[in-house]
Design a protein that fits this description.
single chain; 250 residues; mainly alpha; Helix Hairpins; 2 domains; 4-stranded mixed sheet; 5 helices; binds zinc ion
């Protein structure tokens, strides 16, 4: 391979790498889509669970409320009976006993009524909490649907790009020497950027200074060279030196 064919081989490999990196980025984005969607889906499910919990609390509070209402009615009946007893008492002893009954019932009734107010508050708070969460739930749900639709559109666009890049890649492969292609593919399995320039003697893959003997070989060789540190294919872009080398080779 002469210097000029090596130059065009490098250009083809660079072009190939451009395509491969683009495909790599597309694949990354395609993989991210389900993650983004499922994160939002989880949030929605979490909220749904909270709403269900609130609804359970609400039902429980409603049950307490009914129980309390029944208990209050019973206490009121008892109170009426005790008041009747007091009115019909024939002596002081009977009157005192009836009065004590009335006091006890009134205290119990008071407690029940205070508890009923507390239950009412719980019901109100839970109702409001359900309303707010439900509103948020609806908003997230429609956000999810929009996102899902958008993602499907985006993914199909990206799949189209991949097909186009794949065709371009296939054409390009025909122009590259098999041995060089194998080397490129082998490096690419570990590093997405398999071919890099050396600028002023520095490998642009690992940013290490190439040893002088490697750099000299790089300037004069008619074969692909590799960085001794990161093993990427490395080529010279130092125009002045390369052109000097080119003219020297003629
Ligand atoms: Zn390197």
């Amino acid at each position: 391979m002469d210097v000029d064919s090596l130059k065009s081989e490098i250009q083809h490999l660079e072009k190939l790498q451009e395509i491969d990196l683009e495909i790599f980025e597309i694949d990354k984005k395609l993989r991210e889509i389900p993650d983004i969607l499922s994160a939002l889906k989880n949030k929605i499910e979490e909220l749904h669970e909270q709403i269900e919990q609130d609804k359970t609390t609400y039902k429980e509070a409603e049950r307490w409320q009914k129980e309390h209402e029944r208990a209050i009615e019973m206490q009121k009946d008892l109170l009426a009976k005790s008041k009747a007893k007091l009115a019909g008492s024939r002596n002081e002893r009977e009157a005192n006993a009836a009065q004590r009954e009335i006091d006890t019932i009134k205290r119990a009734l008071n407690e029940r009524e205070e508890e009923a107010i507390h239950i009412m508050e719980v019901i109100e708070q839970t109702t409001e909490s359900i309303r707010q969460k439900d509103e948020r739930y609806q908003a997230l749900q429609s956000e999810f649907e929009g996102m899902e639709q958008e993602s499907r559109k985006k993914a199909s666009g990206m799949e189209d790009s991949k097909v186009r890049l794949g065709d371009e890649r296939k054409q390009l492969l025909k122009t590259i020497n098999h041995r060089n292609l194998d080397l490129y593919e082998k490096i690419r399995m570990r590093k997405p950027r398999a071919i890099v320039p050396a600028i002023k003697g520095i490998c642009q893959g690992c940013h290490m200074m190439l040893p002088p003997q490697t750099y000299n070989i790089l300037l004069r060789s008619d074969r692909l060279s590799q960085c001794p540190n990161c093993h990427r294919i490395v080529y010279c872009t130092d125009k002045e030196i390369c052109s000097m080398d080119g003219s020297g080779a003629k």
